[in-house]
C-alpha cells in the first residue's frame, strides 16, 4: 500500500477526505492528517510518504513555502495541491514543485481519483526507471569485477573514482549471503559512500568496497541483519591492487560462497586470506590405504567416519570440488564390495550434483549400506577364478573371451554368471580394478601418466583419461596434484 499524507487547516476537510473515496481500492492508505503545516514538516522529516495532498492557503505557513520545504525533505514524494482560491500564483507554485494536479475546493470525487491515479502512475514509472537503472548499474559493475568487458573498465573506474593505488582507501570485495529482505541491504548500500557499486549473484550480493579500516568496521556493524551465529557469514576479501587481482578476487569469492553453502556454514564473519597466505589443501587418499581403513567398518561406523572426514575438510577450508573428488575415491572403494553396476553412474552423478555436505553424506552412506548387504554373498568357484585373473593380469589386454577359454567355459554363460554374482559386468569390474591400481600409482610412484595408463592395461592414453575422469571427477594429473599437495581445484 502506498502511503498518503493530507495537510489542510480545515478540520472538516481532514475528516471528509478519508471518507470521500475507497483509498484501499487504489492501493493507498492515509498514514497521517495534519492541520498545522509546521508540524507536518516535522513529521515528514522522520516518516516517508508516497503522496502528499496539501492545501495552498494555511495561516501558519503559506502553501508555496510549505510544499517547497516538503519536497526538499522528500524529493520523490508526489504532490497534489488543493486550494479554494483561483489564484494563479498559488497554482503555479504548486506546479513548480512538480505537483501532479491541482484540485479546487470543494474537492470533486472523480477529480480526486483521477489525480491520485496520475500520481500512482508517476510513482510506478519512476520506480520502473529506477529499477532498470539499478539493474544496468549492477550489470556494469559485474562486468567490471568479472573482467568480461575490459574495454569499458578504465572509463568506469574513472567515473566511480576507484583508485587501486590509494593506501588510505584500499579496494576489496565483500559478499553478503542471502540477505532477507534484500531490499533493506540495497537501500543501505546505496547510502554508503565507501561502496562505488554492487551486484546480485543469484540470492547473494557482491560489493565493491573502497575505504579504510574504520569505514569497513562501520559497514560491518551498521549493515542490516547484523552478523551472528544464526546467519551465514559475510565474506571480506583481501585488498586488491589492480584489475587483474580484482578479477582473481571475484572468482575466489565465488568459490568461497559455494563452499559456505555446501558446508552449510552459519556462523559469523570470514575474512578471506591473501593468495599467498592460502592454507595448503588436504591431500586425497590413495585407494589401498582407504580400502584398508574402510574394510572393517560396518555401515554405522562408516557413516561416523565419513562425517568426521567431511568435518575435517570443512575446517581445512577444502573446496567443493576437492570434497566431491574425495567422495569419488570413497565411492570407488565401497563399490568394490559389490554395489550393482547400474547404480554406480547414478551415484557419480548424484555426487556431482550434491548441493550440501549433508546430501553428500546421505549418498555415500546409502551406497555403503547396500554394498555391505551385497558383500555377504559367496562367489562360485568360476567367478572367484575370474576375479583372481583380473587382479593378477589387469595390465594385459584382457577380454572375457580369453578368460572363458582359460576356464574352458562358454563366454556368454560366464559373463552372465559374473554379473549376477558380482553386480557388475566383467569389463566394468576390470576397469574399476584398473582405476584402483592407477590411483595408487599416481599417488605413490613417479611414473608418467601415460606410462601408468599402459601399465594398468590401456594402450590408448586418451581412453584412460576419459575413464579416470568419469570415475573420479578429475583428470589423472589433477588427482596426482591433489594427492601430492592438495592443489587440485
What does this structure look like?
The protein has helices at 11-20, 37-44, 63-73, 88-96, 109-146, 150-159, 182-190, 213-222, 243-262, 287-294, 299-315, 320-335, 344-353, 357-374, 381-393, 400-407, 411-422, 426-444, 449-455, 461-472, 476-485; strands at residues 2-7, 28-34, 51-55, 78-83, 99-104, 171-176, 197-201, 204-210, 234-236, 270-271. It is α/β, with parallel strands linked by helices and 489 residues long. It folds into four domains: 2-124, Response regulator (Rossmann fold); 147-254, Alpha-Beta Plaits (2-Layer Sandwich), CATH 3.30.70; 287-374; 381-485, Arc Repressor Mutant, subunit A (Orthogonal Bundle), CATH 1.10.10.60. A five-stranded parallel sheet has the order 2-1-3-4-5, with helices on both faces. Helix 3 links the parallel strand 3 (51-55) and strand 4. Helix 2 (37-44) runs parallel beside helix 3 (63-73) and helix 5 packs across helix 6 (150-159). The longest helix has 38 residues, at 109-146. It is elongated, with a radius of gyration of 35 Å. It starts with a strand and ends with a helix. The mean pLDDT is 87.
Lateral arrangement of strands in the main beta sheet: 2-1-3-4-5
Radius of gyration: 35 Å
CATH class of the largest domain, named Alpha Beta
Mean pLDDT: 87
CATH fold-type name of the largest domain: Rossmann fold
By DSSP (H or I, 4+ residues per run), the number of helices equals: 21
- Looking at how many chains there are and whether they match, the oligomeric state comes to single chain
Major sheet, described briefly? 5 strands, parallel
Categorize the overall geometry.
Answer: elongated
Count of β-strands: 10
What structural class do the secondary elements suggest? alpha/beta
CATH superfamily grouping of the largest domain:
Response regulator
Count of distinct structural domains: 4
Domain Response regulatory: 3-120
Keywords: DNA-binding, Phosphoprotein, Transcription, Transcription regulation
Organism: Lacticaseibacillus mingshuiensis
InterPro entries: CheY-like_superfamily (IPR011006), Homeodomain-like_sf (IPR009057), HTH_AraC (IPR018060), HTH_AraC-typ_CS (IPR018062), Sig_transdc_resp-reg_receiver (IPR001789), Tscrpt_reg_AraC-type_HTH (IPR020449)
Amino acid at each position: 500500500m502506498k502511503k498518503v499524507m493530507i495537510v489542510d487547516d480545515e478540520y472538516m476537510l481532514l475528516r471528509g477526505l478519508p471518507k470521500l473515496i475507497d483509498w484501499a481500492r487504489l492501493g493507498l492508505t492515509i498514514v497521517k492528517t495534519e492541520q498545522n503545516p509546521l508540524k507536518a514538516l516535522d513529521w515528514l522529516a522522520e516518516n516517508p510518504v508516497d503522496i502528499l495532498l496539501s492545501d495552498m492557503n494555511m495561516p501558519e505557513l503559506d502553501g508555496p513555502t510549505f510544499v517547497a520545504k516538503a519536497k526538499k525533505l522528500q524529493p520523490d514524494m508526489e504532490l497534489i495541491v488543493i486550494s479554494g482560491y483561483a489564484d494563479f500564483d498559488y497554482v503555479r507554485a504548486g506546479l513548480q514543485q512538480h505537483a501532479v494536479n491541482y484540485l479546487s475546493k470543494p474537492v470533486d470525487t472523480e477529480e480526486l481519483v483521477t489525480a491520485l491515479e496520475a500520481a500512482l502512475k508517476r510513482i510506478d514509472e519512476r520506480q520502473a526507471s529506477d529499477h532498470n537503472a539499478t539493474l544496468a548499474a549492477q550489470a556494469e559493475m559485474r562486468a567490471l569485477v568479472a573482467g568480461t568487458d575490459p574495454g569499458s573498465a578504465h572509463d568506469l573506474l574513472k567515473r566511480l573514482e576507484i583508485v587501486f593505488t590509494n593506501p588510505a582507501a584500499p579496494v576489496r570485495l565483500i559478499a553478503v549471503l542471502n540477505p532477507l529482505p534484500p531490499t533493506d541491504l540495497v537501500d543501505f548500500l546505496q547510502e554508503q559512500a565507501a561502496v562505488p557499486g554492487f551486484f546480485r549473484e543469484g540470492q547473494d550480493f557482491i560489493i565493491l568496497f573502497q575505504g579504510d579500516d574504520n569505514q569497513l568496521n562501520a559497514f560491518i556493524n551498521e549493515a542490516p541483519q547484523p552478523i551472528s551465529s544464526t546467519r551465514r557469514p559475510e565474506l571480506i576479501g583481501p585488498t586488491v591492487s589492480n584489475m587483474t587481482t580484482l578479477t582473481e578476487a571475484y572468482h575466489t569469492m565465488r568459490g568461497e560462497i559455494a563452499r559456505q553453502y555446501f558446508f552449510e556454514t552459519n556462523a559469523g564473519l570470514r575474512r578471506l586470506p591473501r593468495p599467498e597466505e592460502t592454507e595448503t589443501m588436504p591431500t586425497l587418499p590413495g585407494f589401498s590405504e582407504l580400502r584398508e581403513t574402510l574394510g572393517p567398518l560396518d555401515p554405522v561406523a562408516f557413516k561416523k567416519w565419513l562425517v568426521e572426514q567431511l568435518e575435517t575438510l570443512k575446517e581445512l577450508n577444502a573446496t567443493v570440488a576437492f570434497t566431491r573428488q574425495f567422495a569419488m575415491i570413497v565411492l570407488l572403494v565401497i563399490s568394490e564390495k559389490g554395489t550393482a553396476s547400474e547404480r554406480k553412474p547414478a551415484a557419480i552423478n548424484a555426487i556431482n550434483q550434491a548441493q550440501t555436505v549433508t546430501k553428500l553424506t546421505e549418498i555415500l552412506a546409502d551406497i555403503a549400506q547396500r554394498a555391505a548387504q551385497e558383500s555377504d554373498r559367496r562367489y562360485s568357484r568360476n567367478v572367484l577364478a575370474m576375479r583372481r585373473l583380473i587382479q593378477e593380469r589387469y595390465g594385459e589386454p584382457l577380454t572375457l573371451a580369453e578368460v572363458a577359454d582359460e576356464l574352458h567355459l562358454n563366454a556368454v554363460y560366464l559373463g552372465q554368471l559374473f554379473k549376477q554374482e558380482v553386480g557388475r559386468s566383467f569389463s566394468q569390474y576390470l576397469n574399476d580394478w584398473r582405476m584402483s591400481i592407477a590411483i595408487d600409482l599416481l599417488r605413490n610412484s613417479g611414473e608418467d601418466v601415460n606410462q601408468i595408463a599402459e601399465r594398468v592395461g590401456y594402450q590408448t592414453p586418451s581412453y584412460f583419461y576419459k575413464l579416470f575422469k568419469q570415475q573420479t571427477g578429475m583428470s589423472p594429473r589433477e588427482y596426482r596434484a591433489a594427492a601430492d599437495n592438495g592443489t587440485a581445484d
